[in-house]
Design a protein that fits this description.
Blueprint: H1 10-19, H2 29-51, H3 55-60, H4 63-77
Helix pairs in contact: 1-2
Amino acid sequence: MADKYLQIDPNEFAMQIISTVSTDEKHSNMDLIKRNLTLYLEAYYLINDFNHLEVTNLEKMKQQQISDLFDKMLSGRFSV
């Protein structure tokens, strides 16, 4: 396991994220497009960042450290 990496497809992940966003009739189409594009790009680059972390490093971390890492990554990226 030391030489393997956990890889998540960034495009598939980002598409899943934006597919869960509900449409809002209060906002214009342009606003919704901008929001979805921003969300897509943030999700895409978040997964790219994650894919660069070695699984062996994650295995060495305590569960709380992993949780804190993901919380930190998400709070910095998904502030739309």
